[in-house]
Write a structure and sequence with these properties.
This protein has about 110 residues and is mainly α. Helix content is about 70%, strand content about 0%.
Length: about 110
């Protein structure tokens, strides 16, 4: 995958995620959602809100990652690991075009955060 293909793909993904974030925000700020009075229904209601909140967090994270990748493309740095400055393998880039790390640095970083 070349940078132009990656840019097109990432922009499509970004557009989709921005639309999702808007729907999530609209749902979270919906005033007319009645809060159930029944304990079981209230538990389900709150669980649903937790799921939506988690989805919102993941969506915002993905948006941030894609925007950063688009900046790297603009600056001619896409495909270069932000830690070791080595080339990120073509297979990894084609599967994960927004990722900023080569496989070795991703594994190393993961081992320190686990």
């Amino acid at each position: 995958m070349n940078s132009q293909d990656a840019q097109s793909l990432l922009q499509e993904q970004l557009d989709t995620l921005v639309r999702r974030a808007k729907r999530i925000s609209d749902h979270q700020h919906e005033i007319d959602r009645g809060v159930p009075q029944d304990a079981d229904e209230l538990a389900q209601y709150r669980q649903g809100d937790e799921v939506v909140s988690a989805l919102d967090g993941r969506t915002r994270y993905d948006i941030t990652q894609i925007r950063a990748a688009l900046v790297r493309i603009e600056k001619g740095r896409w495909g270069t690991c932000v830690l070791c400055q080595e080339h990120i393998g073509a297979e990894r880039l084609s599967r994960l075009p927004s990722k900023p790390l080569c496989a070795a640095c991703a594994i190393e970083l993961d081992s320190h955060t686990s």
